């Protein structure tokens, strides 16, 4: 009898896995699920995103070539253990990035990889040991994802501004506060595997991003039904760095934002953010590699 129950349970589990494997998270607002947005809402969405871009000071970011910062990143819980891109669940790091590209590196200041650096140059993955010699290696998909995603969220309003689909998605309440929302994606409004969706929660009193809900179609976590999950990030503790407002605390949740701020998957605390403290060549150890800028094509 027990064997029959176990077999039946296994079959149910298999059916659930197969069923959910074909599902995609879809973070469109109810308004957008009813049909295509009006021209008025498309214009309103673009205007709101432009206001965020101006308020956060991206024109000042554009004056610089590179930036760096230190950070403590803390991943917790089962999903944090599964999803962490770094060797350790809690680690001190320093990041260097080139503005508007995907060239960057991370130097581990604690943990198993202390003293080592991992980087991307036009999507070519490399590592440096304690002697500082760069070596092209087989791509570490977790670190590749972490580097590109962390930079993308620092520059989010600027990166999304060029997306082909931007529209107002309605107003929503969260934690007792009303936000204006803007939906951003590529190719088509409906959920599809090739492109992510973003929903921006804009504080109408400051025009800063408070939350962003997003899908992760390119996640390195290849688990059945994984595409059904999505993430959200809370931006706060904005600090002015030469006219550019940097959210020094970035808290990520599984699926929708949680009312309990400690119920996060990971949280990054930023410090010592500064511009142009090193030459862009530091991020280009291989002169023969073609620059690809904001493109996701490998150079």
Core attributes:
single chain; 299 residues; alpha+beta; outer membrane lipoprotein receptor (LolB), chain A; 13-stranded antiparallel beta sheet; 7 helices; 13 strands; globular; disordered N terminus
Describe this structure in words.
This protein is α+β, with helices and mostly antiparallel strands. The chain has a single domain (2-283), classed as Lipoprotein localisation LolA/LolB/LppX (outer membrane lipoprotein receptor (LolB), chain A). 24% of the residues lie in helices and 33% in strands. The protein contains seven helices and 13 strands. The protein has helices spanning 2-21, 30-33, 39-56, 58-61, 77-83, 141-154, 156-160, and strands spanning 66-75, 90-98, 104-108, 117-121, 124-128, 134-136, 165-174, 177-185, 198-202, 209-214, 231-241, 244-254, 266-275. The protein has a 13-stranded antiparallel beta sheet with strand order 6-5-4-3-2-1-13-12-11-10-9-8-7. The N and C termini lie far apart (59 Å). The relative contact order is 0.19. The model is unreliable at 1-21 (pLDDT under 50).
Brief synopsis:
With 299 residues, this protein is of the alpha+beta class.
> What's the number of helices?
7
Count all strands and give the number: 13
Supply the helix-strand structural class.
alpha+beta
At the fold tier of CATH, the topology name is: outer membrane lipoprotein receptor (LolB), chain A
CA-CA gap between termini? 59 Å
Low-pLDDT residue intervals, each spanning 5 or more residues: 1-21
CATH architecture name: Clam
The portion of residues assigned to helices is 10-25%
Return the string of H and E elements: HHHHEHEEEEEHHEEEEEEE
* Strand content range: 25-35%
Question: What would you give as the CATH superfamily?
Answer: Lipoprotein localisation LolA/LolB/LppX
Provide the gyration radius in Å. 20 Å
Summed over residues and divided by their number, the pLDDT gives a mean of 90
